[in-house]
Amino acid sequence: MISLHNHSTYCDGKNSPTEMLQDAIKQSLTHFGLSGHAPVPFETEWSIKNIDVAREYITEIEKGIIEYPDLKIYKGLEADYIPGKSYSFDYFREDLKLNYIIGSVHLVRNNSGIWFIDGPIEGYDRGLKKHYDKNFMAAMSQYYQQQMEMLEKENFEILAHCDKVLMHNNKRYVNESDDAHLQLLKDTLKMASEKNVWVEINTRGLYKGLHQDFYPGTYIFSFIKKEKIKIIKSADGHATDQIIKGFSELDKAISEFGIEDLVVCPEEIEERFS
Ligand SMILES: [Zn+2]
Ligand SMILES: [Zn+2]
Question: What residues contact residue 198 under an 8 Å CB cut-off, 6+ apart?
Fold first, then answer.
């Protein structure tokens, strides 16, 4: 089994990289990666503080690679793209000798500032009011444009939770199947596919009870099938008991839609991440 989207105490996770690796072995995984939140050029409560701390994080993973040769261990980061602000993904890749990067948008930027779509619902609504005057369509559109700009400008392997903008929406502002939303998501997925970026299907919102579906949800699975978009299962684990959490539900959905053949296989990972 494969699990590549995982966090540790170097960012906002509960366990050290070593503990995560040891548990991956206990849970019989074959391919395991850590993808700490990359540093951003301002302080947050959830990202790796700076490049020096990122180097320590990588050193700890490298020790694990030597100590646990039977598990295929990969060095990654979940890097935020913020137009005009975030560090280039290549900088992290080269400095830290990463095997892979998960490209992510949690911070949506416009002229008035940054809307943080993750975290508690109060912050989500406050940001929507402050930066978009409660115009959800404009904010949502900016989120997807920012993801597409990331696909255009940065070099990365996996696209993170690509409809996470819906997390605190709860159908209050838009229905996920509305054309206005679907078109933006479809454009994003097509672009990911053209750029050979794998699209993760992330189970975290579902098992945390924060969202009623995967990111992205099953409403888009028939499109994924039609366009033959490569997908990868992610639990976005922030603790040892989360590294494959939600995978059995996801496997069920994948088989119901008949898209098993689109799931990235171990050989593809070994080839691309070597
Ligand atoms: Zn994320
Ligand atoms: Zn994550």
Answer: 157, 158, 159, 192, 230, 231, 232, 264
**Helix or strand (DSSP H, E) at 101:** strand 100-104
Q: What is the total count of domains within the chain? A: 1
pTM beyond 0.90: the answer is yes
Question: Can you give the CATH number for the domain in which 156 is found?
Answer: 3.20.20.140
Dist. CA 78 → ligand 2 center (Å): 6
**What is the 8-class DSSP label of residue 34?**
E
201 has which bridge partners? 233
Q: What percent of the chain has pLDDT over 70?
A: 100
Q: Are 58 and 10 in contact (CB under 8 A)?
A: no
| Cα(10) to centroid(ligand 1), Å | 15
User: What's the CA-to-centroid distance between 234 and ligand 2, angstroms?
Assistant: 9
Residue 28 CA to ligand 2 center (angstroms) comes to: 22
Identify the pLDDT of residue 81.
98
Range of the domain at 155: 2-272
CA of 161 to the centre of ligand 1 (A): 7
State the distance from the centre of ligand 2 to the C-alpha of 204, rounded, in angstroms. 9
pLDDT band at 84 (very low <50, low <70, confident <90, very high): very high
Q: Which residues contact 162 (CB under 8 A, 6 or more apart)?
A: 147, 185, 188, 189, 192, 199, 200, 215, 216
Provide the phi-psi class of 247: left if phi over 0, else alpha when psi is between -120 and 50, else beta.
Answer: alpha
- The alpha carbon of 155 and the centre of ligand 2 are apart by a number of angstroms equal to 18
